[in-house]
Known about the structure:
The protein has 19 helices and 16 strands. The protein is α/β, with parallel strands linked by helices. It has one domain (1-490): Rossmann fold, CATH 3.40.50.1100.
Amino acid sequence: MVKSTRSNLLTTETEAILRGLAPDGGLYVFDQINPKWFQKTLVGKSYSEIAFLTMKELLPEFSLEEIHDIVECSYNEANFQDRIVGLVPFQHKAYLTLYHGRTFAFKDLALSTLPNLMAVAKAKANIVKHTVILTATSGDTGSAALSGFSRADDTTVIVLYPNQGVSEFQELQMNQYKELGHHVLAVDGNFDDCQKLAKDLFQSLNPKHILLSSANSINIGRIIPQIIYYVYSYAELCDRGLIAYGEKINITVPTGNFGNIYSAYIAKQLGVPINRLIIASNKNNVLTDVFQTQQYNTNRTLYKTISPSMDILISSNLERYLYHLYGSKQVKTLMDTLKETKLIELEGLNPDGLFQAYYATEEETKETIKEVFHKDHYLIDPHTAVCACVAKKFQEETKDDHFMLLVSTANPYKFSSSMLEALELDSQETLENDMKKLQYYTNLKIDQRMLDLLESNPAKTTVTKQEAFDLVQKIVGEIDAQNHHAGNNQ
């Protein structure tokens, strides 16, 4: 069973995955977690085997056959051509590369799985309704959701993203899916505006003949697949002899919405030997301030950075962690206060020092890209550079020498112009030329699928916040009416 962060309302995993957001506006969390689940027997197992065992533990309502089918449909060559995740070791550290999926970012790992989780959940609940996925994105979730659900005939995806707030490649990725009947809206505002729009729409929309859900990490079906790669990475480090079984590691995670690092937190609750979780923020360092000052202040400027997927001020998944600390009654009060005043005090936020938080400036991010490339002959994207910079700051300040896992979240070619700038190379006139210049200079081969995408030239739909709200209401209303007629004609 799972429960809401705001009322302790218990429900099934099936319902939580289908709903996304709890009826009281809270997020779903696991009712019980077995702290002794992680065992040495996991060492040496494949990614799919560990995915199966993790889902078996976290989804007791699902049958073994259902979980097997989800794993088989999610982690295959159609979704991940050469590997599912990678480990790139250096001296006493390793990059966990999570961008080998269809849209070249870590969101693919969750959003190749969520459509299959939802398909099984719909079957378990005897739901035959058309599904509408409404999601806000700061860059990567949108294209990963559109890709993941593109093969689901009974699903329409609506994506809201900040106009001029994502990279050119990310925007190109998302807009290509409009040809398949999905809806992609560039909203004049920032990611927090898009996220608020999505939440407001969930509260106001009440379709009768379709299922409305989310692909954002507010959906617990997004969190489960992310827990898996932390379980796997620890087992793989042991299998490669990079650490001894039982040896604690540190993990640095570039994060804006707190979902990825919250997944690592749950992996620790399941028994994965983790010493510290280091939060890596960019110039939008709200999470750094939260953990260093114990104040959550969202009344601040949102900056556009070269790591756009982290350009976030309201970290939705932090609510899940607060629930573990304070319980539902206090969380509801805190979230209501935050909505009203944009400032809350969080006493006792980090009682055991598990979380450490730092941020990287724009210049530090660029310098880290250049330094890692020249020193280690390894190319990392701006989000991973934030991670590497922060990990170095943590180690220099604390002298902590535990093995460090650096979470690498995106293919560098998704941000080619920023990569060229960081390497002090002139940007070219087109995205294709930027990518080819980066390839020539670094000798890192461009994935052919990325080049194929450049041949498309999809139209862009730009709207105001009010226009976005009205248009989504209209789209959902029309789909609802169509499915009402379709149901009557069956």
